[in-house]
Amino acid sequence: MAEPKALRCVTCGREFPPWSVDYFCPRCGFPAGNLEVLYDRDKPLRRFPDPARFSLWRYGELLPVGEEHAVRLRAGGTPLYPWAQAAEELGLGALWIKDDTLQPTASCKDRGTAVTVAVAKRLGRKALACASTGNAASSLAGFCAAGGVPCYIFVPKNAPAPKIAQLVAFGAFVFRVDGNYDQAFALALAASQEFGWYNRSDGLNPMVVEGNKTVAFEIWEELGDVPEAVVVAVGDGAVIAGVCKGFLELREAGLAPRVPKVFGVQAAGAAAVAHAFARFQRGAPILPAEEPAETLADSIRVGKPADVVKAVKYVAETGGGYVTVSDPELLSAARELARRAGVFAEPSGAAPYAALLRLVREGALGQKDRVVLIITGSGLKDPQGVTRDLPEPPLIRPDLRAVREAVERCA
Ligand SMILES: *Cc1c(COP(=O)(O)O)cnc(C)c1O
Ligand SMILES: [Zn+2]
Question: For the whole model, what pTM was predicted?
Fold first, then answer.
């Protein structure tokens, strides 16, 4: 475990002693005053111990809390699949799929949750809370169930029933707020302060990014090198902030000589971070970042991104950028990924593949580039989303002749 040196405000740069403040710089407020976790790097790391430990706790030397506080669900240690056929068709040096759907609650959120819940245990917090309708909430509910810790989830009143069902199954206390997501978010924060709960909401709690960064460590370690580019979907910005911070820390620790270009992908109808990045490139302020958000990819349908400052600054530091894709591109990416790579992703999860097709078409990536797509959420979270308007399987008579006729139609 690495004891953090300080928490630093991403806007004014003021530093706070570790654990002296939970969420944001009081001077700058939220989200301008989001915090980043800094460590002391007096001695460079050479390698991580214990290669048999296939979970993110093997990177303890770069994490703010030790495994002794962790709950037993295993986050991290997900597979990295080479996809040579697509690399060749697209004219890339190499292509891999980092399958982060293979986590305890089937999304990338489990990395941030694992570390955040361990921090809560270390700090002696008796309960956790968050506002979310989707993967962050089910992730927190699952880890709290495993840890025997109470969990309070605030969802807007129009949250879809299947997502609430998953939370209830894990035994979370779910409050449906008679209002929109922003109101649920603010209420979860106020209630956390009132009742002493530790709040895991994305973009609010800096420990979430500390867990999210482990995906970068895994990619680097498994490839034995840093790729030229990494592509990942962006909603609030906490996942991409983690991806960038992970690679930047590997370089800072002397483990990797350089960082990959990190590209974020957003839906064209929910592109507040991409637009903030464009403003930043022109020298204009990142905040306020607030826009309407409309896309079928619900996990990245975010109008007021909570971690936008990190998501913009860190991506710029890697030399990467942002791409937006249409809903039809997202759907066809999810289908192609399932059919050709055997990886079933929700539309948000497949977004990096849609972005890759654009980046190649526009000449941003090519023959010299080795690329990793991070697939963030399972298609089983929203199976109808991916298969809508595909034909239903045929109904056949229970005899072989019917099978023969059906097989002939299977071109
Ligand atoms: C949360 C999530 C993202 C984006 O993460 P942010 O931190 O909100 O940017 C992408 N894909 C899936 C499946 C997610 O659940
Ligand atoms: Zn500040």
Answer: 0.96
